Q: What sequence folds into this?
């Protein structure tokens, strides 16, 4: 096909785009009416409550098209939302996708984006049930709403942490923040770090295993840096916490960069965003069970601190002296 | 307070903004966990299915800040989504609001927007249960997701129209399109026309009355012009239709402008967007009951045509000759 005859967004139009997307969506039993009516109709499983979350991703704020392959961008757009359902101990079920598209955006970009989005959806048995499409006068804007379900007794909130609980985190911290930092400085980034930034894996199975075994008392996903995100658990649980710097799980790729400027790098592991790991608290008596449970899921898990009754969240160096993080998690507007 | 000490978005930050909004949200019985966790937790009423829809509104695409008072913009941002739930015969319940905000946007604008959004929410007993906020490098972007519920037998789809059914529409058509057209030409627009464009009323009670009395066979909300929107009913019901131009319900304010260029004005009533009225079909035997039912709701209703078995949707002049609309409903990208 010659470039001039390649279909464009203007040629297929709004309804052409919607039908182009909807024909790629597999059917699910819990979707009674999907894309194509004024609203979708879905059925919750008996006894389940509804979990809902939404995220907006803007070009040049949350992503750059020059760094982000459209297929991976599609995957990540849904992954970050699925991560929110995981953090509640929920089962992700349905998603809505809204796209504000610059008219000059190649249709191939949109096709790849949608393919990535639907691949992530299929991996987690999430049905795309609706959305909105419109033209954008500036960059690409993406809005994703995710819905999930869980029985009331298994829903994990930020508010359940108790003093003396252990603070745990899955996977490794800081990889995505380090990759972003290196990209911004124009440095070459290794594949494994880049993967953590561009194609994060929401920890759904680990979260479900934890809640099904009644192991966690509170949970959050690490999107703004573990220090800020554990801070939300502390706030809502009316507790504090002490995080041990030496215990933060760091990847081999991340450790390679520690020698240069360890304080900065530590701040990335503590305060960098987009890890999409789980941070959770559990009773000390559950230590072995937590480790076993995560081993079965094939997910690394690390104890990084302890919940305190005093309201402050502190970080300590290996020698017991306080570490001054001098930073907070990512915060828009400030 | 002097302007320099007035709080700004940068001063209060992302979490300040979220808490500023969440403190204004009333509590509802069906909201177990609202704003503040990774996902909201809500409970559907027994036997109900979930209805979901989402809309994106972009500055200078869907609205202009110079025309749209922030309070009315907040009201409309939710109203257009509530209208989608109404079109399914559903009861609106929960909403998510995402805002991409230019950093220079005055906090007073955001406060007024949120006040308008929450006023519309309260009028329809809709709970704001979550959302997202981020900074925008271009204009204001708004994404709203609405959820509602209804028992399976009462959900009204686009697909239920049968040949010989009457085609009905609530309220009047074309007012919003005419107001927009006049604003774009720099003309003075009367209050009543402007109100239809800037502060539409979703027809929730009318839709619920119709479905509770089992009167409608198919329904849609008129957002892209009645010709295009009835076209969706026709497509999904595998029928056609014949609309009578003489029967289109036109407001007195709209009729004032008909003398000038009646064909153009008729196209606005047929093909103009943003009426947010209901277009529905009903068996001819139900004519009196439909009229009575809408009278009880205080909503005007007009029979504008008939469903046909042939697949075309046609429009006829008062003398029976075909009217050439030469236009379609609003379509992004083309």
A:
């Amino acid at each position: 096909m010659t470039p001039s005859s390649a279909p464009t967004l203007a040629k297929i139009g709004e309804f052409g785009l919607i039908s182009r997307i909807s024909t790629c969506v597999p059917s699910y039993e819990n979707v009674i009416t999907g894309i194509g009516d004024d609203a979708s109709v879905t059925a919750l499983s008996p006894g389940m409550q509804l979990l809902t979350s939404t995220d907006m991703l803007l070009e040049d704020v949350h992503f750059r098209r020059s760094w982000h392959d459209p297929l991976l961008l599609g995957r990540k757009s849904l992954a970050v939302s699925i991560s929110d359902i995981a953090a509640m101990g929920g089962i992700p079920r349905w998603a809505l996708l809204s796209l504000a598209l610059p008219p000059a955006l190649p249709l191939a970009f949109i096709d790849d984006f949608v393919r990535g989005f639907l691949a992530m959806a299929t991996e987690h048995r999430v049905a795309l049930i609706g959305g909105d499409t419109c033209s954008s006068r500036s960059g690409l804007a993406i809005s994703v709403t995710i819905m999930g379900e869980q029985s009331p007794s298994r829903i994990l909130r930020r508010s359940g942490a108790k003093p003396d609980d252990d603070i745990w985190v899955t996977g490794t911290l800081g990889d995505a923040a380090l990759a972003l930092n290196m990209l911004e400085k124009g440095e070459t980034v290794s594949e494994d770090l880049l993967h953590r930034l561009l194609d994060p894996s929401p920890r759904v199975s680990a979260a479900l295993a934890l809640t099904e075994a009644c192991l966690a008392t509170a949970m959050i996903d690490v999107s703004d840096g573990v220090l800020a995100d554990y801070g939300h658990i502390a706030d809502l649980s009316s507790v504090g916490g002490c995080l041990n710097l030496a215990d933060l799980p760091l990847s081999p790729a991340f450790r390679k960069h520690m020698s240069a400027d360890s304080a900065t790098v530590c701040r990335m592991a503590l305060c960098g965003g987009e890890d999409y790991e789980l941070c959770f608290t559990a009773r000390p008596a559950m230590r072995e069970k937590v480790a076993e449970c995560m081993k079965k899921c094939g997910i690394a898990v690390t104890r990084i601190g302890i919940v305190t009754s005093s309201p402050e969240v502190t970080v300590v160096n290996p020698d017991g002296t306080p570490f001054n993080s001098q930073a907070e998690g990512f915060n828009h507007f400030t």
Remarks:
- The domain at 12-154 of chain A is CATH 3.30.1330.10 (60s Ribosomal Protein L30; Chain: A;).
- Chain A touches chain B through 71 residues (CB under 8 Å).
- The longest strand of chain A covers residues 91-101.
- The radius of gyration of chain A is 21 Å.
